[in-house]
Amino acid sequence: MRMRENTILRVAAKSLLPFFFLFAFYVQFHGDFGPGGGFQAGVIFAAGVVLYGLIYGVDAAKAVIPKPWVEVGVALGVLIWIATGVATMLEGGRYLEYGKLDVAHPVHGQHLGILFVEFGVLMAVASGMTLIFYLFAERGR
Amino acid sequence: MFAPLADWASSLEALTEHFPVLVVVLPMLAAPLCFLVRHANLARAIGGLAAVACFAMVVQLLGRVLDEGVVSYRLGGWPPPLGIEYRYDLINTFVALIVSAMAAIVIPFGQNPRAFAVPPGRHNVVYAVYALCAAGLLGMTVTGDLFNIYVFLEISSLSAYTLVAIGSERRALMSAFSYLTMGTIGGLFFLIGVGMLYQMTGTLNIVDLSERLADVSSVRTLSVAFAMLFIGLSIKLAVFPLHQWLPNAYTFAPPKVSAFLAATATKVAFYVMLRVIFTIFGRERSFEQMNLDRILLPLSVAAMFMGSIAAIYQLNIKRLLAYSSIAQIGYMTLGISLNSESGLVGGIVHLFNHAVMKGGLFLAVACILFRLGSVKIEDMRGLGRRMPWTMGAVLIFGLGLIGVPGTVGFVSKWYLVVGAIERDLHVVAFLTLVSSLLAVVYVWRLVEVAWFSKASEGSSAQTVREAPLAMLLPVWLLALASLWFGISTDHSAGIARLAAQQLLGTAP
Fold first, then answer.
1. How far is CA B116 from the centre of its chain?
2. What pTM was computed for the model?
3. Per-block average pLDDT, block size 10, for chain B (508 residues)?
4. Is there a contact between A87 and B2 if contact means CB atoms under 8 Å apart?
5. B255-274 vs B245-252: helix crossing angle, rounded to 10
6. Which among B15, B227, B267, B444 has most CB atoms closer than 10 A?
7. Across the A/B interface, how many CB contacts are shorter than 8 Å?
């Protein structure tokens, strides 16, 4: 049976998808000081895209998240992560010394640093996973 | 939010303070930039600039290490052993110098577009992967944290598989896959070893680890951890008989990639092996409790012979060089297994010398492939007359592989033979010399084909021109280095001796 005729899967996937992305962001922002989470959140986010692609077709997924975006996203994610480290050095700290990002309140700096770095990780991982899915789905077409 | 830029630029002092971390950050920053610019030459400029800057920074750091001793950098400001520390002592700064120098020689001079299976418009990707590989290798070298070594090992390995896989021959994919399989198994062994050490000591900082291991009495877990680390690194280093991945990977990768990997990837694995054996476990434990020399010595001698004999029978010059690499790795591990200062100096200085020779040889092969379009030895008949500069450099490196006095190869073999005689291992010293004679055979094959046979009628070897200057320049840079460091050994063997003393703990 063709996937587009499979009503139950289509309806179920559609109602589940918002929760995928919500859960991804929950994992991302859970806890203020805890490093980590970006990778898992990225994978969950990408899993949402993959599910959408499996049920509605890769072209539909690419219409939502175009392939050039994810290609740039991989590099940009890494760049954000490194740039955070460089920013702390410009502020007179050591590489990735988050406290220096906000000199008056080092604790805020720690917040900021982890926020930036984890955002970079999320972006790189989500884009990377999605890109792998796109590349495999394109094979043999 | 940020301090004024002019202010920052004016104080170079503040910047030098960050050199230890910038050595890794700069190529890692270059990688995504190369990917994003989508223009091959722009990417080459970015990657090349990062590599040259890295080299300059490592030179400065080496001077600092020679003057002041160990240079340590705390990432994120966290003090070791809790935080990650980049720690420069003599041995790893020396290795970082080799890695960054090779990157600075391979990346800026451009790549042969036909050597890659990447469409010309996307050639920036090649430079991105090069930069990533360099970042991983440099990170492995300079970090003082054992788990960090594993992370960088994966970064460098994954990008190395990619570099091999994008070679233009279809078989590159297959050889990259077997490289990936073996490399992953090696990485896994290493990781299990790291996990066991962590479980026993609760620390990952190498210096802290070595201090805490002194109090650990459970010999069995320690032996297993040692075995795991040793086997994992042996795969990465391609110690006989765990070398199966190497000949195919070097043969089907683009020649400049082979030059880069041959001169850096195995060298860094060798460095990590030195670290594990001498710094973490210590000489006494490694050699007296684990009897490392009884395993490594026969394997090294076997590698010397098996690699050289296999090289003699190859029809493809890249495969010949790959098998010769296995033999040369045998000389390096022989230096460890001799368990003496001279032996270790030989091993470390051969690490440098082999990087110069094999890097140069593969770059010369890149010239041959560029002009001749083939790397089969039989197609190279009479090539010595058509491409005298390229083949002249091949001859110089070849003499180095044999170990002729006046070339770098002689220096390392001298120390190895002296080390073997000091340990009363006269048979080993004799076998080292005999295996050099095997190198004469395979180097002579190249000389004979290039100069003493005539190009067959109508073959392209009759009409080819000398390689362009941009390709000859790096080759001759290394050729002159191999002559220079063969005569003036202050900088290569001198630093190697100090590094060996530091590793053995016999520094004055």
1. 22
2. 0.92
3. 55 80 92 89 90 93 89 85 88 93 88 78 87 94 93 94 88 91 94 93 89 82 91 92 90 90 92 92 84 90 92 91 93 90 91 92 90 84 85 91 88 90 89 90 89 75 79 90 86 87 78
4. yes
5. 150
6. B267
7. 55
